[in-house]
Write a structure and sequence with these properties.
Strand order of the largest sheet: 3-2-1-4-5
Low-confidence stretches: none
Order of helices and strands: EEEHEHEHHH
Radius of gyration: 18 Å
Helix content: 25-40%
Number of strands: 5
Mean pLDDT: 89
């Protein structure tokens, strides 16, 4: 089965301020009004293919909203279109991962199985490293004009990640989850 780890996060319009270099006496100024909580929500999935152990990355964004159970099911439905065979999804126990909408989707999609990460164990989910790379690296000190611009950059960076297997593997290695062993060779 494909192993898929899923997580959601929010990226706020105000910047995540990090240290930066500047000349002595020329302190950099990072904009943003500091008062609002407008965000782009993002859901991401790191997959491991069963035969060749290749990593994949899938994501969706929601400008100004959040991923309700309906939107999570839409993401799972889209994910199943890309992955052949059985799929095991591992995720946290978020409220949008439960309920009648998710149960009905599982009833109709027998090739999908859901498993929960242990409570309070984000270090076991490689998608957390993706969010860290995105927030603390690519988008640090970034002040977009509006949510649409923020979403455009989020999508651009996540597409870049999707097409960079070395970076995706390095982010997996940041987690405490061991990479699955390859399947035994049949003789």
């Amino acid at each position: 089965a494909h192993l898929v780890l899923i997580d959601e996060s929010g990226l706020f319009l105000n910047p995540l301020v990090r240290r930066s270099w500047s000349l002595i006496g020329q302190t950099p100024v990072v904009g943003g009004d500091g008062g609002h909580r407008q965000k782009v929500s993002v859901i991401g999935a790191v997959s491991v293919s069963p035969a060749v152990q290749r990593l994949g990355f899938y994501f969706a964004t929601e400008v100004g909203g959040y991923f309700s159970a309906d939107k999570v099911v839409a993401f799972l439905r889209d994910l199943l279109k890309h992955l052949r065979g059985n799929v095991v999804v591992i995720w946290d126990g978020g409220p949008n991962h439960k309920g009648p909408v998710v149960r009905e989707f599982l009833r109709k999609n027998k090739r999908l199985r859901l498993e929960r990460l242990p409570p309070d164990a984000p270090e076991l989910n490689p998608v957390e490293a993706v969010w860290s790379w995105l927030k603390w690296g690519r988008l640090a000190n970034f002040v977009p004009d509006d949510l649409r611009e923020l979403d455009d950059w989020v999508v651009e960076y996540l597409v870049e990640l999707k097409h960079n297997p070395e970076l995706l593997r390095a982010l997996w290695e940041r987690s405490e989850l061991p990479f699955p062993d390859p399947p035994p060779v049949k003789e």
